[in-house]
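Collaborator request, handled under Task 6.
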Amino acid sequence: MLQLDSGTSPGPYTVYADTVDSNPIEMNVPAIRLRNGVIYTVTPQPSQFIVVNNNPACNNKYAVSVSAPAPPATPTPTPVSTNTPTNTPTLTSTPTPTPTPTLTPTITSVPLTPTPTPTVTSAAPVSVTVNLTIDPGNTGYTEIYYSPTYNVTPSLQQTLTTSGTFTFNVFDTNTFYVITKQLSRAYNYQLSEIIYSINGVPDINSPYLKGLNVENKLASIPTYGGPNGYPSVTLGNTYIVDTFIGNQR
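Structure tokens returned to the collaborator:
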């Protein structure tokens, strides 16, 4: 019977007969099994068993030699092992194994170099077209507010007082808006009107309608957010603002 004392490492272990140069009798044997005692039948009878600790947590792999007693007259059942070899080794010499030290690598930390974050100073321009139509008997104007500089609050850049078209560029993600005001009318049902279309589709607030002498402003906080509710532009889209003074469209 092969039996180790209670102070042995948890293993796993490899068991050899007489020499570690021979084929192992059993591999990956837990320490608890060796402490309880294991009977190995080896022909010819070895003079000793050599138990090698294969635990990677140990600093060194080491071997323990245990004298091999004569087999008992009545064999004792051996616990079932999942790794019992099928061959029976023939052993010759008994060298004393020399422990092989396990080298511990030295890790040198290298500081990471941060990747600089690019600073965005400008963006691509987006075209916006504003149309004004004034019906006969009506007077008024359309004011156009935008910024020719990236990321700046829009300001008054152009005023239309007669029917016509004005196209301008707004930088991507910038805001703009228009104000239309009716100053006089021929009929009391006439008013000022704004229809704002993105890619040919009017926004959910169109038409924006106001009466005589009231500023009609293209702005909606619920729709466009921000403190003023001005619409913003996105590169690749088409923006058209149709303004009318007179009959409703």
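The cover message to the collaborator said: "Helices lie at 31-36, 221-224. The chain has two domains: 1-83, 125-246. Please let us know whether this matches your experimental observations."
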